[in-house]
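If it is no trouble, might I ask you for a protein's amino acid sequence along with its backbone structure tokens?
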Amino acid sequence: MKLICFHLFNDYSGSPKVLKSTLQHLLAKGVEVELVTSRGGVLDELEGCGNIRYRRYSYRFSKNAALTMLRYVWAQIYTFFIALGYAHNKEAVFYINTILPAGPALAGWLTGKRVIYHYHENATVKSRFYRALAWVMQRLASEIICVSRFQRSFLERTDGVCVIPNAIDDAFIARLTPNPQKAFERQRVLMLGSLKKYKGTIEFCKLAAMLPQYSFELVINDTRENIDAFWRDNNIGRIENLAVHPRQEDVAPFYNRASIVLNLTNKEFAIETFGLTVLEAMSAGLPVIVPTVGGVAEMVDDGKNGFKINIQNLSFIAEKTEKLFTNRELYLSLCEESLARSKKYNSAAMAREILHKIRDKGNL
């Protein structure tokens, strides 16, 4: 079998990280992989692995929505014709990471290939564009892999749909150094996100201003230039206890110096289908505060390994943060449960289940 993987934008966000972890395990099992993606992200780190071949192109987002759409359409046309090149390869199976690579999925469907979608988004609560892509996915896919029960519940299609929760790779876990006692003493709040307003960036800044006695760190998956522009556009002043960092190749050091990790996605505008940064935090033995709904909420038992709180209730989030930082016994209990819960999300098991979905159809 030859697995042809398509991923639109290769950066350091959650979906390419999950794809990297999956492919590492599949490559170790001898699966031949061809990866079609853009340059300059976490997927480049697979280059040292054997049995993988890259087909790269240039792609990036723009503040100009029309320009971004033109680049997207170009990428779909380009990858559509790349995918057509496998028309006579009977061993080829197409693996589509996220719903964005519609071009190669269409080519796979037209040429009779198995088209496996790894569905990371929740298109229902996004734009019409994403809902259209979800409609396309449900008609082109041989198999759809969802990352949570919550996400699956929104699909009209029921056959050929399964749930395989995300996981993080062992190499990343090995760089984490859980130490609840030291973490409690640090009293530092961490969040990792993007400049999309629904991700809670502005709310995190407000929370830092509300709790000047604690340290706050914010890692944003974007350039320093775009971050500075966002700060100016939203009139965010200097907050003495807040450190803001641009896109990072390795975020493990941030977890190793944090005490708690927040996810402040606004459920009125978007709902997290999983929450990879929450799993990373749990793997570092840290309590988490997350929204009350979505796949990310499935990972947290309120009061056991973290708290579920609406982003609109910043005063309650501040109250829970202070409670954690003033109650050592409670804090240590949540740390222990977080670390134990993280063990359920195993990257080898995730890859094994994905490979099993392929084997079910007699491709190996």
Q: What stands out?
A: The chain has two domains: 2-167+346-359, 171-342. DSSP finds 14 helices and 13 strands in the chain.
